[in-house]
Amino acid sequence: MANVITSLFNIKYPIIQAGMVWCSGWRLAAAVSNVGGLGIIGAGSMYPEVLREHIQKCKQATDHPFAVNVPLLYPNIKEIMDILVEQDVKIVFTSAGNPATWTSFLKEKGMTVVHVIANTKFALKAEQSGVDAIVAEGFEAGGHNGREETTTLCLIPMIKQAVKIPVIAAGGIASGKSMLAAFSLGADAVQIGSAFAVAEESSAHPNFKERIISSAEGDTKLRMKKLVPVRLLKNEFADAVAQAEANGASTTELATLLGRARAKLGMFEGDIAEGELEIGQVSAMLNEIKPAAIILHEIWEEFLSEKDKLSALKF
């Protein structure tokens, strides 16, 4: 399929694997890129020297395009950006910050830049900053989320109407059917996180993967709204957060409860009781751990099949 996104990234399919903390290392990124999608290394959970290693290993594992996702609020952001230049990274997805701060720098270095947004205001700011495309992420998505709680179904057509640059839909997409729905709303590609979090190549701990595929409808909630909203799977930690929020906990009290390395504890080290387990609502639809290549191909084949079914409908 050739469209603005496949042409922009020089990839075969308009399917992008999200840059998820503690899940998106070089193995997952290379596996997705090798079968025609765009794999992304998630820098948000990596020290600078670890990121450098992942980029180098990804280059050894694939000769196809891949990207790096960089949260702009990262404390070592200058060092991270210097590594991207040093390692000749071609595609960068930025998030969690003002794209105007670094977009010009990255573009001057010849990089393609994409920014993640959750509302029209920031979509317009991203476009004005000169990014090549945006990821519009709906409320269903896992991890850090928009305060507006706008669903993907509502967000994508609003963003498409507001901007002229390509739009990548994210949030609640884990199948060919949901991919087709996103395209019908105007999306030029989809970014998929949760479905790839349970890929064999994902760096998530096996305990976390098993917890994802055993989850049920309603097992994720948006928490920590006074800090930075984040969608979490139910567990003892999430229950403690819910209780604290019900009791009117302050931002300081919530930050203390969160502590340090809580996401690493759950997602990477496998403590599914006390760890922070970030995942999307679509986790309730996931029931199997399998290779990233199979995940991508199943989504693509279902997308084509469902598209043909809709074309055959008689009205």
Highlighted features:
single chain; 315 residues; alpha/beta; TIM Barrel; 2 domains; eight-stranded parallel β-sheet; three-stranded antiparallel β-sheet; 14 helices; 11 strands; globular
Write a structural description.
This protein has 315 residues and is of the alpha/beta class. It folds into 2 domains: 4-204 and 286-312, Alpha-Beta Barrel (TIM Barrel), CATH 3.20.20.70; 206-282, no CATH class. It has 14 helices and 11 strands. It has helices spanning 4-9, 26-34, 48-61, 77-86, 103-108, 120-129, 152-162, 176-184, 194-197, 206-213, 236-246, 251-258, 262-268, 292-312, and strands at 15-17, 39-42, 66-71, 91-95, 112-117, 133-137, 143-144, 167-170, 189-192, 220-223, 230-233. The strands form 2 sheets. It has an 8-stranded parallel sheet with strand order 1-9-8-6-5-4-3-2. α2 (26-34) runs parallel beside α3 and α8 crosses α14.
**Domains, number:** 2
SSE succession: HEHEHEHEHEHEEHEHEHHEEHHHH
Spatial arrangement of strands, main beta sheet:
1-9-8-6-5-4-3-2
| Distance from first to last alpha carbon | 27 Å
- Overall shape: it is globular
CATH class of the largest domain: Alpha Beta
Proportion in helices: 40-55%
Strand fraction: 5-15%
Report the strand count. 11
At the third CATH level, what is the topology name of the largest domain?
TIM Barrel
Overall structural class, as computed from helix and strand content, comes to alpha/beta
Rg over CA atoms? 18 Å
- CATH arch. level architecture of the largest domain: Alpha-Beta Barrel
Helical element count? 14
